[in-house]
Amino acid sequence: MERITITIDAELLAIVDGVMARRGYASRSEAIRDMIRDAASREDVLSRNGVCVAVLDYVYDHETRSLAQRLTHELHAHHHLSVASMHIHLDHDRCLETTVLRGPASALQKLSDTITTQRGVHHANLHVIPLAAQPDR
Ligand code: NI
């Protein structure tokens, strides 16, 4: 095990401490190691660029000007990557969309970025699952 020193702002450290308390980590090091493992695993999947399935979910305000049409347009423009979508009307203003994607990891990440960087899209998450046999981590 290597020992390193990192500089982190108070706000981010408070988030780490909150994760520690909620999930029962014995130390900050343990909590931060698990966060890095999650990120590293995700980056590893993306760097291999094999065929993947992915679940993309996000919340958006359907009153934001032409946002719903733009999101639908992007998925139609990439229909070869889009397997299925589910749309949930969360409340008066907000919608939750979950879309299953399938294709090369880089193409899925790019489509996800195109959608999730639109103004009015919140709480976005892309979960990428490699289809080629890889050890589970
Ligand atoms: Ni809706």
Automatic annotation (TrEMBL):
Q: How is the cofactor bound?
A: Binds 1 nickel ion per subunit.
Pfam families in the record? NikR_C, RHH_1
Q: Does the keyword Transcription apply?
A: yes
Needed co-factor(s): Ni(2+)
Reading the lineage from the top rank, the first entry is Bacteria
Query: InterPro entries in the record, alphabetically?
Result: Acetolactate_synth/TF_NikR_C, ACT-like_dom_sf, Arc_rbn_hlx_hlx, CopG, CopG/NikR_regulator, Ni_resp_reg_NikR, Ribbon_hlx_hlx, TF_NikR_Ni-bd_C
GO BP annotation list: response to nickel cation
Q: Which CDD domains match?
A: RHH_NikR_HicB-like (cd22231)
Q: Where is the Transcription factor NikR nickel binding C-terminal domain?
A: 53-129
Its keywords, alphabetically, are:
DNA-binding, Metal-binding, Nickel, Transcription, Transcription regulation
| Residues bound to Ni(2+) | 76, 87, 89, 95
What family is it from?
Belongs to the transcriptional regulatory CopG/NikR family.
Function of the protein: Transcriptional regulator.
Query: Protein name, please?
Result: Putative nickel-responsive regulator
Instruction: List the source organism.
Output: Gluconacetobacter azotocaptans
Upper lineage ranks? Bacteria, Pseudomonadati, Pseudomonadota, Alphaproteobacteria, Acetobacterales
